[in-house]
Amino acid sequence: MTTTKPNTGFWIIAVLALLWNLMGLFQYLATTLMADTVNEALPEEQVALMDSLPAWYTYLFAIAVIAGTLASLLMLLRKKVAVPLFGLSLIAVLVQMGYWLFATDVMEVVGMQSVIMPLIVITIAIFLYFYNKGAAQKGWLR
User: What are the extents of the domains in the chain?
Assistant: First the structure.
């Protein structure tokens, strides 16, 4: 398969993907390395909810943001390996957010607004995976 030059939209999406995933990486680092500082700003019920999460939940968070960040960098470098990394990130996001929404009391503790950000994260993860899959088929990734 020959590679072709991607359009301007590809580059815009690639830069936005990297910024989005860097924000996720920062969020992960903040919640793990500065947990005490983050917890001081939250109501007691939310801290209890976050403290009740299993250890694998944090590992999935790490996998999602690290795979997404690496995939975004590889997207900018036009490498096909970005596709399976975005896929790995998507799977981690789906399991993590599914657990957050359906296996915890987050909607009772925080309310319906607790659904908004997980749905945004899921939507963007799905978009990035399928967009890169299409970019690979168009020859934009090599």
Answer: 8-137
Interatomic CA distance for residues 61 and 38, integer angstroms: 16
Each residue of 36-88: pLDDT tens digit? 787 787 888 888 888 899 999 999 999 999 999 999 999 999 999 999 999 99
Tell which residue, 10, 26, 23, has the closest CA to residue 82: 10
pTM: 0.92
- SS3 state at 122: helix
Q: Are 89 and 64 in contact (CB under 8 A)?
A: yes
Percent of the chain with pLDDT over 70: 98
Q: Which of 70, 74, 64 is nearest to 125 (CA)?
A: 64
Give which of 74, 88, 94, 66 is closest to 135, Cα–Cα.
74
User: Residue 76: CB partners within 8 Å, gap ≥ 6?
Assistant: 14, 15, 18
